[in-house]
Amino acid sequence: MTYKFIGKVNSVLKEPVIYFVTIKDFLYIGETESHPVIRWGSHLALHGTLLEKIRRIDRNLLLEDNEIEFYAFECTYIKNTFNRLRIDYALKYTEFQLHLLFKTRVNTVNKKFGREIKVISDTPNKPKFFKDSGGECEKLAVCIFDDFLNNYSL
Asked: Is the dihedral of CA 7, 11, 13, 16 positive or negative?
């Protein structure tokens, strides 16, 4: 009998998380305050945002044997620094910064993966009422970006 272990996700039910979802040459960046599997499930539901974006790009991506990969980064800095009301702003700001990093460092990303990687998630608006004191959320975004590029392959 054959089988393949495909992974494990450790997280509590409520946790600030930045996540990436990849399929072929496409990258979706997002954030959630719930378990990442819950959010990923909604993305892949019949009218989920990720599924809709993939359908618009290339309907065949879902019909072919393309693996969908999920990456989650627990944001302990955000969890330990901000109160419940500010966690949402801090996560959105960190996600915003990650979108900027993937846009401004596109050559680095493409060189690392050996092909053009297209970000298909919408860049969120920068939260108006959030001040990143000391640039810590921006530093967190850089750490996540670097970790993803240095430790994972698409």
From this structure: negative
pLDDT at 93 over 90: yes
Q: How big is the CA angle at 26 (ends 20 and 32), to the nearest 5 degrees?
A: 25
Q: At 139, give phi and psi (nearest 5°).
A: -65, -40
Between CA 43 and CA 62 the distance in angstroms is 13
> Do 102 and 58 form a contact (C-beta atoms < 8 A)?
no
Is the pTM here over 0.70, yes or no? yes
- Select from 119, 127, 123, 126 the least CA-distant residue to 148: 119
Inter-axis angle of helices 84-104 and 106-113, to 10 degrees?
Answer: 80
Which one, of 56, 63, 49, lies nearest residue 19 by Cα?
A: 49
Dump strand ranges (E) for 2-134: 14-23, 26-34, 68-74, 118-119
> Which three-class secondary structure state does DSSP give residue 26?
strand
Whether the Cβ atoms of residue 54 and residue 61 lie closer than 8 Å to each other? yes
The 10s digit of each residue's pLDDT in 10-37 is: 888 889 999 999 998 999 999 999 999 9
